[in-house]
Structures are given as C-alpha cells and as structure tokens.
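Archive entry: two folds, one per protein. Generate the first.
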Amino acid sequence: MSEEVLLEVKDLKMYFENRKGLLGKQIEYVKAVDGVSFTINRGETIGLVGESGCGKSTTGYSIMRLYKPTSGQILYKGVDIASMSPKEVWPYRKNM
C-alpha cells in the first residue's frame, strides 16, 4: 500500500522585517523559521516541539497561510499553496 502525501513542507523560511535607526532606514531581518522541511502522509500525526520562541507557531501560521512565507514550498495534496493569494488559498485552508 503506497502512502498518500497530504502535506509536504520544503525549506520553509519566514523572516520578519525590523526597521531600526533614524526614520527606520536601517533594516534587519529576524529569522523566525529558517529551512524547515517535513512530510505528513494521510493518517499520520506529527508533533512539533521546541523551546519558547523557536518558531513552532510561526511554522503553523505559515503552513495555514496566515503568514506569507519568505520562501519555500508548502505542498498540500501536491498543490503549492505558498505563493497563492489569500483568495486562492481559502478553499485549501478550509480543508486543512
């Protein structure tokens, strides 16, 4: 029996812009998630564990497209939802 891949996350990155300095001209990036990859097959359950502030929630928010990822792929049933607009991703989010 072959396993159906339900969700595949490839090299997910989520960086937040932080403006500093006079008039906010100096920009630095906070790397909340940097290079996360995993696969979930139908019927599987996974746990994402780590210390406070390590990016667990940001990973989840990015997968659900509550945040638009900086880069990477989020394949839900083979369809890359990472680059979709909020309107395009809505039908997928309802099923996730």
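Generate the second and append.
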Amino acid sequence: MTSAPAIGFEYAPSRGWGRACAGMTLLAAAAGWLSALPWWCALALTAALAVALPPTWRAWRQPPIRSAGRAADGGWTLRDAHCADTPATLLSSRALGDCLWLRLQPTSGAAVNLLLAPDNSDADLRRRLRMRLAAAC
C-alpha cells in the first residue's frame, strides 16, 4: 500500500462562525435587558459586551496562521503571517456536522484553533482530513 500524500491548505476564518458569535453577543445583551436585572446592571453588561466585541472580532478576522499542512507521516506544519513555518502537534480534532475543528500546538507559542467550515474550505479537503484523522486513532 502506498503512503498517503501530504495535505496542505490556506486558512481563512469562517464568516458564518463570526456572524454566529456576533449574533450570540447581541442575544446576550438582549437577555440582560429582558431579565430582572436592574437597568444599570443591564447597561453595564451591554457596555462590557460592546467593549469586548471589537478586539475579539479583529482577532478572529486576522488569525495568526495563514496556512497549515499535514505531512504523509502525520506531522503538522503551520505557516504564520510572516511566512515562517513552525512544526506543530495535533492536540485534538472534532467533526461537527460539515465542519472540522482542529486544535494544534506549535513548538513555540499558544495553541491554535482552526475551524474548517463549508464557507472557508472545500468539502474534499475536509473529507480527506477526516479520513486521515480517523485512521490515526
């Protein structure tokens, strides 16, 4: 049996996931106003959400990782915004419907979450990654 070829892909954040997070933030603000909280608590909650949303949104829209790759031997490589390649290890993976969630730990730095959804990756890539990840277990 021949070895499986490497898989490489460009990474861009999912627009749908970002919109869902923004919608949940609006629902959290509405819940504060519709609950039995005093008006000043609801106002403080809304202000806290309004302050927290823009930096979180920017961090989501500008991920530190530009591309990722899985070698035939099962090793992972991450490429950052400065085009520097960093080896990484797979901490966990989850298949959520049509989405695939990868958590990778580079040799330097914090762990990275990659969400491969229908709006930021093709179905064939997600299918091949799922097969490789299932075979590795």
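Annotation attached to the second fold: Residues 39-61 form the longest helix (23 residues). The mean pLDDT is 88.
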